[in-house]
Amino acid sequence: MLTIILSILFALLPVSIMAGAKGDTMLKDIHWLGHDTFKIVGEKVIYTDPFKIKKKDIADIILITHEHYDHCSPADVKAVQGPNTVIVAPSDCAKKLSGTVKVVKPGDKITVEGVEIEAVPSYNTNKQFHPKMNGWVGYIFTSKGRRIYLAGDTDYIPEMKTFKADIALLPVSGTYVMTADEAVKAALDIKPKLAIPMHYGSIVGSENDAKVFSDGLKGKIEVTILREE
User: Fold this and answer.
1) The pTM is what?
2) Structural domain of residue 128, as residue ranges?
3) Residue 19 domain flag
4) Using CA atoms, how far apart are residues 207 and 214, in angstroms rounded to an integer?
């Protein structure tokens, strides 16, 4: 009888609570270090767009989306680069970096240290800070069986309808990238299990942008606003 009662109660749990439990499981591996910099721990340690690194570390893989100083910072790359670290980056970034660099462009799919990595388009549609012709990228990569989408500096673009990811890391601050409201549309196209806002609180944007993003997806897609580590 007790088993039946517990089963009924579990079935009645709000979807948001159940989704939150899943989110917690995924979140323990994702550390936001500010701006677009994440440390993701899985089969390999992956850093994205290292910028203003506070602690020395060693990454297995570093993913760089484009050559702007707050995304491709040679000094910050060195802070997390070891002798065996593999950097994945567009060609204009590679010229600034040393060590093992694999050059990618939108549409490329590569495997690095057993990690599947897809370079996807990342560009502006209504501003000129990140022209499509530059061939800059976002990434969809696999960690612990989960597909993680790092958008890079992008607007809400048509290609997002084709992206499939379990976790989406999306810029929300406007000015140079999509606004929080546009990021909501992006998330609804991608349909991840979990969305995490980024690109605010450092150069442009504030936590209010992250909250607007979260509120816009309430009841649709789980959103977690990470604290900067």
Assistant:
1) 0.88
2) 27-223
3) no
4) 11
